[in-house]
Design goal:
The complex is a heterodimer of chains A (113) and B (110). By secondary structure, chain A is mainly β. In chain A, 0% of the residues lie in helices and 51% in strands. In chain A, strands 2, 4, 5, 6, 9, 10 and 11 form a seven-stranded mixed β-sheet that branches. A four-stranded antiparallel β-sheet of chain A has the order 1-3-8-7, with no helix packed on it. Chain A starts with a strand and ends with a strand. Chain B is mainly beta and 110 residues long. Chain B contains no helices and nine strands. In chain B, strand 7 and strand 8 form a beta hairpin. Chain B starts with 8 loop residues before the first strand and ends with a strand. The chains are: A mainly beta (113), B mainly beta (110). At the A-B interface, strand 4, strand 5 and strand 10 of A face strand 7 and strand 8 of B.
Chain lengths: 113, 110
Amino acid sequence: EVQLVESGGGLVQPGGSLRLSCAASGFTFSTYWMTWVRQAPGKGLEWVASMKQDGSDKYYVDSVKGRFTISRDNPKNSLFLQMNSLRAEDTAIYYCATRILGWGQGTLVTVSS
Amino acid sequence: QSALTQPASVSGSPGQSITISCTGTNSDVGGYNFVSWYQQHPGKAPKLMIYDVNSRPSGVSNRFSGSKSGNTASLTISGLQAEDEADYYCSSFTTSSSWAFGGGTKLTVL
């Protein structure tokens, strides 16, 4: 059974940092592009970042470029999102996702003083 | 990054069929067969219902089907059931190697 389990969310002050993790199981993690998607409270879905299988290419939505970094550890079947210089508008549920296998349950990030 | 266009709401009676459209451009929907559809119930994570235009993940009812013509993709739900009432989102891979999402469609089962 495919499972994607996010962790690392929480309450952080503006300007602070968080590192999200996604533990993958039930599929060959190293062969899939991985993606982070977020959903602000009461809003729609927004793509955040994606990464190729071997980590050679990374892509980001303009609003997080220079602040967020996507990374992965294939031997440990894990995906990460390092989030720096957080802003109130980054408040959202963050989902770890694949194009054809589905998404995790999400982790809530709240940026507030 | 682009956004796809979906109707804000659709409705149907139990047993009927409904179709939700998702319109993009040649840079996303029209350029790739990588269109997905998600169902989201209140307070829950999005659930993948259709991927690659018309493929269903294991466990998804065959009442859900997808198609694409040009720059517009469609999700059809046949034999509507009360539990189908939810928000539905489309997404597409894009020429920027990003994912574009639609704004979401609220399905009401009358």
